[in-house]
């Protein structure tokens, strides 16, 4: 069951709308064994300024232009009343999904925090908020930490206030609160997507790695990290990357992982972690500074490049490896991490050939090479492939000579089967 409140009128009549299944904004899904109830409050596209007063709820909606978006002020205590009073009208069902979009909830925030500890949120599992003015650190500590079954958290452009003068980034989440939430919900969290997570110190990355490793249910951890200036710390840059490598090696349940790295230090420890990992499909590494790219000297093997290539050769699950410098967009790791000489013979340089191999191994993983390497120590169960499997793989990718040659080289007996 879904209830979408997409206009001020919808919000004013929220209780009646929730209880009326015939309304076009409410759809009953009978395919699920257990019926879910999703409450979605969405003010996109923004509407003209309107003030509303109803007998049950008082909403004052005033559009505010800031952060290049338009939001609507809503008294947080009134929104909490919507969540509480909707529970008795759901025929025994409780809210499982909550989506907020383009809301400004700076008024009466204390009442909003407490509602997440009430019975109406006892079955809440999915929380999504986009382009909202809600103090995210307080929301995590005082509100979301009370939700017993929280398994999905997606916060995008959720800010405390517009950035003060001199601060280039908005006031978003800080890394200690993210780490704390992972510890608190280590038995329930499965999917975490966050942006604008500030990292004030390198020491805090070690705590994050420990929390990610302890969160046994986590399947996706994707964050956009940044730093306005990393404070002095007792942890060396090398130690940070070693800890990240250890986390990657032990992250057997994660399919997607994003972590901040020290870009100036070698990523060889991370390559060693990838060589031992058995489940990761996407790895994103972001630096906390806009550091210069690593220069490649023509004709000289770069230890980091060689270690990454060796890791990709044995890792049978990784399909995507991306890299980002602070303030830029995610890019292919090989093109964004390294700076190449202008006049270089790419066909002979060992680093270029190694990175091409790395890309090739990632492509092989994406098309499913794992079952064909039944003797690999990375496989926890015996993989069985038939003659038809081998032939189908070769025929399917016959236009890619490299792929065809790879599988024929793995099993030359295909010719004689």
Structural domains: how many: 2
Strand content: 15-25%
C-alpha geometry: globular
Helix segment tally: 14
Q: List low-pLDDT spans.
A: 5-9, 14-34, 46-69, 375-382
Q: What is the mean predicted local confidence, pLDDT?
A: 77
State the CATH architecture of the largest domain: Alpha-Beta Horseshoe
- CATH class placement of the largest domain: Alpha Beta
**CATH superfamily placement of the largest domain:** Ribonuclease Inhibitor
Q: Taking Cα atoms only, what radius of gyration do you get, to the nearest Å? A: 25 Å
Distance between the termini: 54 Å
Share of helix among residues?
Answer: 25-40%
Walk across the major sheet and give the strand order.
2-1-3-8-10-11-12-13-14-15-17-18
CATH fold-level name of the largest domain? Leucine-rich repeat, LRR (right-handed beta-alpha superhelix)
Description:
The protein is α/β, with parallel strands linked by helices. The chain folds into 2 domains: 2-371, Ribonuclease Inhibitor (Leucine-rich repeat, LRR (right-handed beta-alpha superhelix)); 385-417, no CATH class. The chain is built from 14 helices and 19 strands. It has helices at residues 8-12, 14-19, 76-86, 109-115, 136-143, 175-184, 203-214, 237-250, 268-276, 303-314, 333-337, 350-367, 387-396, 401-410, and strands at 2-5, 26-27, 38-42, 50-53, 58-61, 63-66, 69-73, 97-101, 103-104, 126-133, 152-159, 191-198, 220-226, 256-261, 282-287, 294-295, 320-324, 331-332, 338-339. The strands form 4 sheets. Strands 2-1-3-8-10-11-12-13-14-15-17-18 form a 12-stranded mixed β-sheet. A 3-stranded mixed β-sheet has the order 6-7-9, with no helix packed on it. A two-stranded antiparallel ribbon has the order 4-5. Strand 11, helix 6 and strand 12 (191-198) form a beta-alpha-beta unit. Helix 3 runs parallel beside helix 4, helix 9 (268-276) runs parallel beside helix 10 and helix 13 (387-396) runs antiparallel to helix 14 (401-410). The protein starts with a strand and ends in a 7-residue tail after the last helix. Residues 5-9, 14-34, 46-69 and 375-382 have low confidence and may be disordered.
């Amino acid at each position: 069951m879904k209830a979408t409140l997409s206009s001020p009128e919808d919000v004013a009549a929220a209780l009646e709308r929730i209880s009326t299944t015939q309304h076009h904004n409410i759809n009953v899904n009978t395919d699920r064994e257990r019926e879910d109830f999703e409450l979605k409050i969405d003010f996109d596209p923004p509407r003209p300024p309107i003030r509303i007063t109803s007998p049950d709820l008082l909403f004052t909606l005033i559009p505010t232009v800031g952060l290049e978006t338009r939001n609507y002020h809503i008294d947080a205590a009134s929104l909490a009343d919507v969540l509480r009073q909707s529970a008795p009208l759901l025929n025994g069902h409780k809210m499982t999904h909550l989506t907020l979009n383009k809301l400004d909830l700076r008024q009466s925030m204390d009442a909003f925090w407490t509602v997440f500890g009430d019975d109406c949120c006892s079955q809440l599992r999915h929380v999504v908020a986009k382009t909202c003015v809600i103090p995210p650190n307080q929301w995590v500590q005082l509100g979301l930490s009370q939700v017993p079954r929280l398994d999905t958290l997606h916060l995008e452009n959720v800010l405390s206030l517009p950035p003060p003068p001199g601060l280039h980034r908005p006031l978003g989440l800080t890394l200690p609160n993210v780490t704390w939430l992972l510890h608190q919900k280590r038995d329930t969290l499965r999917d975490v997507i966050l942006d604008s997570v500030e990292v004030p110190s390198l020491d805090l990355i070690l705590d994050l790695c420990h929390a990610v490793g302890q969160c046994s249910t986590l399947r996706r951890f994707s964050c956009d990290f940044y730093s306005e200036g990393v404070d002095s710390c007792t942890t060396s840059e090398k130690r940070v990357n070693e800890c990240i490598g250890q986390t990657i090696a032990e992250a057997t349940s994660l399919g997607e992982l994003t972590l901040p790295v020290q870009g100036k230090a070698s990523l060889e420890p991370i390559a060693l972690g990838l060589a031992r990992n058995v489940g990761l499909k996407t790895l994103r590494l972001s630096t906390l500074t806009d550091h210069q790219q690593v220069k490649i000297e023509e004709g000289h093997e770069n230890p980091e490049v060689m270690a990454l290539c060796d890791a990709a050769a044995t890792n049978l699950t990784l399909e995507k490896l991306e890299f980002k410098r602070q303030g830029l967009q995610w890019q292919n790791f090989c093109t964004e991490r390294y700076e190449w000489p202008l006049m270089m013979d790419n066909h002979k340089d060992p680093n270029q050939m190694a990175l091409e191999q790395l890309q090739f191994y990632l492509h092989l993983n994406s098309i499913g090479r794992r079952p064909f390497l039944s003797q690999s120590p990375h496989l926890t169960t015996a993989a069985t492939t038939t003659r038809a499997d081998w032939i189908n793989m070769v025929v399917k990718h016959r236009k890619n000579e490299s792929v065809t040659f790879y599988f024929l080289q793995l099993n030359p007996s295909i010719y004689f089967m």
